[in-house]
Structure formats: C-alpha cells, structure tokens
Amino acid sequence: MITEVDAGPITLVAPLDGGRKATSEALKAAIGIGFPNPNRTQGTGPRAIWCGMEQALIVGAACPDLPQAVCVDHTDAWAIVRIEGDQVEDVLARLVPIDLRSAVFKRGHTARTFIGHMNGGVTRVGANAFEVMVMRSMAGTLVHDLESAANGVAARSV
C-alpha cells in the first residue's frame, strides 16, 4: 500500500563548524530529539532525519532557534510517501540500489540514494514499512514508479 505522508513542517538544519553538539542539545531541549548520526533518524513524533554530511531534516515540528546552525524551510520542497506490505523490500529492490533487507537496514535507518532515476531518501519506519521522499516536482513519477514496481512483484507471485 502506498499512502501520502503529511509531514508538517520540514526544516533543513546544518550545524556551523563546531556547532553540532550545541545544535543537538538545543534540539533536545526544544523538541525532545537530538541531531541524528549518519544514516539514522531520531524520534517518532517530531523526527530528525539524517540527509547528508552534517545535515538533517527536522520533520513534524517547528524548528527552534539554533544559533549554531543554518536552518532553511523545506516544507514545500519534499513529497513523502509511505509504502508498506509483506513484499515491500522486493518492491523497493526494483528501484533502490542499496540493501534494504531488515537484517541490514533496520528501523530508524535512512539513506540518501537513487529511487529509480531520482535522488531521494528512504527511511525504514516499521518491520514492513518505509517512507520514501523525493523533491515535490517528482511526486507523480515516484508514485508511478512505485506502482509499476509493485505490479511487477505481484505478477511474479501469480
């Protein structure tokens, strides 16, 4: 099943040189989550999603004042879908060139990667569930590609 995610506010946070610890502490004090480690997320309500070297997306909460970081509103930049089901790993394997099997890519793991021919992010949010995000202008293509991959996996099972 593929569903749209209403993520709420999304802010890109990039700590200034030497400001990662202060940024993490300020985030924890304000919204209860710290700055994530590479390829990881923090939180389940408001979340911090790693999205590149010394960069994270704060999703689902207004970004607090972070004097040791650059903060840029990305609310309208991203389209996020949740894809879930018993064969979700097989569906994503047709589009994503990284190993998303649960033994390797556990809940809370995230990666910037190709999704088909698009750049985006994949985050495991459950045993059989992922959130996939791409730039909003590619939302239609993402849904089309996911549906095509799902149809291919379903046809293989017949």
Number of helical segments with 4 or more residues: 3
Q: What's the pLDDT, averaged over the residues? A: 94
User: How do the strands of the widest beta sheet line up side by side?
Assistant: 1-7-10-9-8
CATH class of the largest domain: Alpha Beta
Query: Structurally, how many domains make up the residues?
Result: 2
Written account of the structure:
This protein is of the alpha+beta class. It is 23% helix and 35% strand. A 5-stranded antiparallel sheet has the order 1-7-10-9-8, covered by helices on one side. A 5-stranded antiparallel sheet has the order 3-4-5-2-6, with no helix packed on it. The chain is elongated, with a radius of gyration of 16 Å. The relative contact order is 0.18.
Descriptors for this entry?
2 domains; 158 residues; five-stranded antiparallel beta sheet; Alpha-Beta Plaits
What's a concise summary of this model?
The chain is α+β, with helices and mostly antiparallel strands and 158 residues long.
Q: What's the structural blueprint in terms of helices and strands?
A:
Blueprint (H helix, E strand, L loop, with lengths): L1 E3 L5 E6 L4 H12 L9 E2 L4 E6 L2 E5 L9 E5 L4 E7 L3 H6 L16 E6 L2 E9 L2 E7 L3 H18 L2
Antiparallel strand pairs: 1-7, 2-5, 2-6, 3-4, 4-5, 7-10, 8-9, 9-10
